[in-house]
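User: Here's a structure from my thesis project, written as structure tokens. My advisor, Dr. K., wants to see whether a designed sequence matches the one we expressed. Can you design one independently, without my sequence as a hint?
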């Protein structure tokens, strides 16, 4: 676990819990939402910002629903359920991942977030007891889990800089955001690919500057978009327009509005297929070394 670092004109020394040290040309700090290195850039920042939502995550073995490969998001801003299969089991059932979200008063205390913090099914199941859609039995699915994990939905404000000398930030250390739109790991991977691309063809200082100039504004825009519900905005729009339900979705929201919301977010996040297929490759091909 990283606890500190020092740098000089020749490199960076990283200090770890237990007394170990490591020396390198650069320090790429991917040490998460509680980043020690980020604290160096923003010493007065304080804890992550909680938006009042708690998420419970688990997996359950359950019968297939709809196509057997469908992802479902149901609910609204105050209560939401997300479910999708992640593996087909030998008996035809699916190992199914689910996330249940509830919103609480902003002044309710919460603990330090942790992806591995055990939760209690009894804290969330009662709110979903009536969510049996026929084709998907939400409370039944939830009861099938062996363990459930709980964490608050938190992020941090975008920083004005990620880089100082030979040190820069990457992933959640740089831009922690709400887990909306499959962007947690995805944006960290994009960070890593762009950083590698810049480092492969430039001096280290120009590479770090180019990486930050490209990725910092892009991820800051995503932090803001996720605070505005990101692609989940359509759920809230439908709930506001038809709080008592509806017979035909398109009486409430048009196909163009659905597709436009998704398309705009894909472009912002870098997931738009047309843009991906049109841009240059980000792959880094090492130059062949001369024979010894």
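Assistant: Designed independently from the structure alone:
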């Amino acid at each position: 676990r990283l606890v500190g670092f020092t740098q000089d004109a020749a490199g960076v020394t990283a200090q770890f819990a237990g007394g170990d040290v490591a020396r390198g040309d650069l320090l790429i700090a991917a040490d998460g939402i509680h980043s020690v290195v980020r604290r160096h850039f923003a010493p007065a920042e304080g804890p992550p910002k909680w938006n009042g939502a708690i998420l419970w995550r688990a997996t359950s073995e359950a019968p297939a629903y709809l196509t057997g490969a469908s992802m479902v998001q149901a609910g609204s801003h105050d209560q939401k359920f997300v479910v999708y299969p992640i593996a087909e089991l030998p008996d035809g059932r699916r190992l199914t991942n689910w996330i249940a979200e509830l919103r609480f008063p902003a002044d309710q205390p919460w603990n330090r977030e942790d992806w591995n913090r055990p939760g209690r099914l009894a804290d969330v199941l009662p709110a979903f007891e009536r969510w049996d859609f026929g084709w998907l039995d939400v409370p039944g699915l939830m009861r099938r889990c062996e363990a459930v994990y709980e964490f608050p939905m938190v992020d941090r404000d975008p920083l004005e800089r990620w880089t100082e000398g030979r040190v820069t930030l990457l992933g959640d250390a740089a831009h922690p955001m709400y887990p909306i739109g499959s962007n947690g790991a995805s944006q960290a991977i994009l960070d890593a690919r762009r950083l590698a691309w810049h480092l492969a063809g430039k001096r280290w200082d120009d590479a770090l500057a180019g990486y930050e100039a490209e990725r910092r504004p892009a991820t800051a825009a995503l932090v803001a978009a996720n605070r505005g519900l990101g692609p989940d905005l359509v759920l809230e729009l439908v709930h506001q327009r038809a709080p008592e339900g509806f017979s035909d979705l398109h009486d409430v929201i048009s196909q163009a509005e659905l597709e436009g919301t998704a398309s705009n977010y894909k472009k912002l996040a870098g997931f738009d297929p047309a843009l991906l297929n049109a841009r240059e490759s980000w792959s880094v091909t090492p130059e062949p070394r001369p024979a010894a």
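When you compare it with your expressed construct, this may help: Residues 204-227 form the longest helix (24 residues).
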